Amino acid sequence: MYLSTKDQDKLLLTTTGFLAQRRLARGVRLNLSEATALIACVLQELIRDGQSSVAQLMQVGKEILGFRHVQPSVPGCFPDGTFLVTVHSPICSPSGRDPHLSLALYGSCITPAPDLFFDHVQPSLEHDLPGAIVVQSPTDSPTSQHISLNVGRARIRIKVTNTGDRPIQVGSHYHFSLTNPALRFDRKIALGHRLDIAAGTSVRFEPGDQRMVTMVEIAGSGQVSGGNGLEGHILQKDDSLAVEALIDSLVAKGFEHEPAIHVESPLKEFEMSREAYANMFGPTTGDKVRLADTSLWVEVEYDHTCYGEELKFGGGKVVREGMADLGIKDGRISGIGKAGNPDIQAGVSDQMVVGVNTEVIAGEGMIVTAGGIDAHVHFICPQLCPEALSNGITTLIGGGTGPVAGTNATTCTPSRTLIRNMLLSTDDVPMNILLTGKGNDSKPEGLVDQVYSGVGGLKLHEDWGSTPGAIDSCLSVCEQYDIQCNIHTDTLNESGFVEDTIKAFKDRVIHTYHTEGAGGGHAPDIIVVCGKDNVLPSSTNPTRPFTNNTLDEHLDMLIVCHHLDKSIPEDIAFAESRIRGETVAAEDVLHDLGALSIISSDSQAMGRIGEVISRTWRTASKMKVFKGFLTEDEKLRGIDNDRVKRYIAKYTINPAIVHGISQEVGDISVGKLADLCIWKPENFGVRPEQIIKGGFVVWSQMGDANASIPTVSAHLRKTHVGLPSE
């Protein structure tokens, strides 16, 4: 059996589709991935039969499933070759074509139970869907129903005729005077003007068309470049002599030019409804966005754009030669604000000019966040890195040397040789890696040796003995070399109680891991360290948030991770002393208050590296449901901006500050590394669309590589060109 990569992608799609068919056959409503796979799988089987055309299958694709078959969030080769089958609005009827599911189960050889019945369901209201956008209403602001574009700019209205024999379509930001020679109008009057329409839209002139067109004066410095006739020169629109020379030159070259007898000067500004604006460019100031399917809503606080000057990439859009321009240089964030061409656009920010050396990543309607930081990583296997990266983590902090007992239990990379080997082994990983050495030594010499070998922190762990002497020695070295000390305290209370460990800190700053205690630490009261000013407390994600099933998984998890023996009663007592429902429940509340600062993974050692971000937002959503809004003002406005900022800090800027790397990563600021995550609102916190590391796309949702467009199913998260190669 010889399978190409595209064959493998289609097999995965088929496997998922068959799984979805089995679930549907037993009465389970499908989620987005299942519904997509089922529709694509059925279409593949119909394509293989060779009896249907592309157009027929486009219609069939809309009739396979209905609203009642899917959850509220769900929106091959022909005989003569490979073709694209697109299905618009695939879930658009209550039951699909066949209420008995014969089409949905086509090719599966599955017969649904005769008494299977899906209740009739109405399509969800738009504001109930994951990632919903609700624009500002008239009750929020009396001027909110429409957005005026190009405010305060002079306008003209002139006659334009297409004298050619083919249609001409002109984009919003094309210098109108320099358009197709077959357009007849007053090119002198139009110089320095563009169409007064929404950015990225266009006006089409059919052959022989004659119409009145409104134009708006270009903004910025007023320099005209690109288009026809300038041959690389730049023209200042107010330079009358140069303007006359240009028009004469255009006429001599055969450009149609007809001086206008009458030029209108309309005063009314072009307007768009807020709904249309949000659909085209994404939400703007005052609009609200639901974060995935959580209870959290954020309001856009400020929009850097100038309405009418938005950047849109594509055919006839704004980002083209001579017109528009963007904020990452040399792997770092160079500007935040309004990108564009300062020659013709208003409000363009410093360091945000796009030119021939600029690439475009379209972000309209998306949410961009800083790359996540996982501050508690056991480097057990290299597969942790792509798993973390594909879920939005771009910085890993921790230790280990691979799948050995010490690393399974502790985040320590000891000795010069092992530190060197770990640093070398991560060179080709497109992530920031900070290694922590072993801090359990009551004498400083070995600790200092690790610092000089390249670790960025030291880790105290009870499995190596977190005694007061080791704590004091480790903190002293960390203070001397300005690196962070992390601690997993003494669950056994062998050397003393939590009070004795706090005394050993001597008011020096320390980062306490899994501070609730299920992951380890003084039983049963390690959580009291949250009240100490010098303690920077964090959580690991298996206890995030506290749910019905949280405690049940922890006992066996702990026994495996810490090399315990079920046949030894003391080992079982040790494990059970760490699993306490009361403190896990309290952990939720302390996070919501801000008393706990960080959420990390504890990867493969009682934690899941791919769920740092998703479990953070599950915790935030749970606390919104239990406690309501954080402030009265946000309650009145129906938003959760303060809570969202509090929780996103737990895996971005807070761990960056704690580990002394906030000058490089942790938020989206000028000068910091361009480590970014791009999310669709409906998938926020769960499934990023793209991961950017140092300005390069290193991970992305991507369709079939053999397809004619990049969005053909199956969509898989794949590594991309930004990844280094041998």
Automatic annotation (TrEMBL):
Carbamylation allows a single lysine to coordinate two nickel ions. One of its GO terms (biological process) is urea catabolic process. Its cofactor is Ni cation. The keyword Metal-binding applies. InterPro entries: Amidohydro-rel (IPR006680), Metal-dep_hydrolase_composite (IPR011059), Metal_Hydrolase (IPR032466), Urease_alpha_N_dom (IPR011612), Urease_AS (IPR017950), Urease_asu (IPR005848), Urease_asu_c (IPR017951), Urease_beta-like (IPR002019). The active site is at H562. Keywords: Hydrolase, Metal-binding, Nickel. Residues 371-726 form the Urease domain. Transmembrane segments: none annotated. Substrate binds at H461. Its EC number is 3.5.1.5. Pathway: Nitrogen metabolism; urea degradation; CO(2) and NH(3) from urea (urease route): step 1/1. GO terms for cellular component: urease complex. Ni(2+) 1 binds at H376, H378, K459, D602. Binds 2 nickel ions per subunit. This is urease. The lineage of its organism: Eukaryota, Fungi, Dikarya, Basidiomycota, Pucciniomycotina.
